[in-house]
Every structure is written in C-alpha cells, then in structure tokens.
Amino acid sequence: MGELKKWRDEKWVRIGTDGSIKGACGTSENKKNPDRCLPLAKANSMTKAERAATAKKKKKSGRTKQFVSNTKAGKVTSRYA
C-alpha cells in the first residue's frame, strides 16, 4: 500500500491550545490561523501538556508563517504513520 493511502486512511484530529482533542482535522473555525492537527494515535500517545505545547507553538507562529514545525514530542514519525 502506498504511503499517501496510509496517510489518508489515518484519523487526523485537531488539538486545542488547552491540550484537548477538539474534533476532526479541518474543522477549525479560524481558517487564517488553524489549530494543530495530528494523527489520533500520535495525539493519544502524548500527554495533555505535550499536546498543549505543540498547539500553542502553532497558534503563536501560525499568524506569520505558513508551516510551523511540531515540538519534539509532537513530531510524527513513521511509527505513527
């Protein structure tokens, strides 16, 4: 199976700045500065504080940058892909 198909079949979720899982990725109301999205398996493997840290980093830099890298704990590796 191709990597793109594997990626499309994952369940991606939105992470709020409080560290909670807010729903499906792509459903953010703020389209100019959307929430961080992660695969559900990766989000569940992180603590609430780790999820909050990566979401806050995205919100802080997302106003000026198109792409904002994850925190070290939030990096998605092939283990979750």
Summarize the structure.
The protein has 81 residues and is of the alpha+beta class.
Output the keywords.
81 residues
Explain this structure.
The chain is α+β, with helices and mostly antiparallel strands. It has one domain (3-61). It is 33% helix and 15% strand. It has 3 helices and 3 strands. It has helices at 3-9, 40-45, 48-61, and strands at residues 12-15, 21-24, 36-39. The protein has a 3-stranded antiparallel sheet. Strand 1 (12-15) and strand 2 form a beta hairpin. The longest helix is centred in the C-terminal third of the chain and has 14 residues, at 48-61. The model has no long low-confidence stretch (mean pLDDT 85).
